[in-house]
Amino acid sequence: LEATLDAIIDLAGAERGMLLLPGEEGLVPKAWRGFPAGADAARFAGSTTALAQAMRTRRPVVAHDLSLESALAGQASVVAGGLRALACLPLVLGEEVLGVAYVDSRRPGAAITRIDLELLEAFAERA
Predict the structure, then answer these.
(1) What is the pLDDT of residues 79-96, one digit of tens each?
(2) How far apart are CA 94 and CA 107, in angstroms?
(3) 84: DSSP letter
(4) Could you give the percent of the chain with pLDDT greater than 90?
(5) Is-contact 28 41, C-beta < 8 A?
(6) How far apart are CA 91 and CA 80, in angstroms?
(7) Residue 57 pLDDT > 90, yes or no?
């Protein structure tokens, strides 16, 4: 899981990330980079709005400059975290969402092309 997360962080040009899987109390981090050691779901400091949207729609949520994304820019988790770019990829098997790969950055990222998105989705499928 750590190697997959590292690849997603690198491809997305992100600073940190998490792979979250369902647990007894919601999504639980199973691998993370750039978050404090011992991070848990109660202290998830990313965009909860993007996380919920990816889970609900079963589609990736990607933004290379959150200040341009009206649905995310003003959200408390984005503002509090100083987030500027993110990618949130649902881990889907058939109709079931098994978890989420989430990466973000406090600086704007490079625009993610269609090929980049396909590669990100492939890494998420591998996870």
Answers:
(1) 888 888 899 999 988 888
(2) 34
(3) -
(4) 24
(5) yes
(6) 26
(7) yes
